[in-house]
């Protein structure tokens, strides 16, 4: 009986491991550090930011009051999922995710359009922005 149970557990573990291995990952072209700004003349309050999309599906983002990024406002972290031109950010402590469509302009430039956001977010307007990869 013990042997059958052990064998069943091994088969189950192998099956689940195989499913995890086939799980689609995040778009690898977004992994890394990026910076962006919200237009000063746009629909929402001006912000600039630096974010880091990690391969393990976590992110952190620091918001700044100024374009030079010397006056931090706050840092947030959470999990991200991106595939097929859709990026979803689930910030820790925020009930609903922010969702964007994205288009890669080149390896170091990505354009986003906001399509869904948590009602507690600082801007409830639809807006778009471009981020640039931070190298070095």
UniProtKB/TrEMBL annotation:
Report the PROSITE patterns cross-referenced here.
Answer: PROKAR_LIPOPROTEIN
Domain of life according to the entry: Bacteria
- Residues annotated as signal peptide: 1-20
What is the name listed in the Swiss-Prot or TrEMBL entry for this protein? Lipoprotein
What keywords were assigned to this record? Signal
């Amino acid at each position: 009986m013990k042997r059958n149970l052990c064998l069943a557990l091994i088969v189950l573990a192998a099956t689940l491991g195989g499913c995890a291995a086939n799980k689609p990952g995040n778009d690898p072209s977004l992994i890394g550090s990026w910076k962006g700004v919200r237009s000063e003349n746009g629909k929402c309050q001006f912000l600039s930011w630096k974010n880091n999309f990690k391969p393990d599906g976590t992110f952190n983002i620091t918001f700044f009051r100024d374009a030079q990024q010397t006056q931090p406002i706050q840092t947030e972290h959470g999990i991200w999922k991106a595939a097929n031109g859709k990026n979803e950010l689930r910030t820790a402590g925020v009930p609903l995710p922010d969702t964007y469509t994205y288009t890669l302009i080149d390896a170091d430039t990505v354009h986003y359009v906001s399509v869904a956001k948590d009602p507690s977010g600082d801007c409830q307007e639809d807006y778009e922005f471009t981020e640039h990869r931070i190298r070095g």
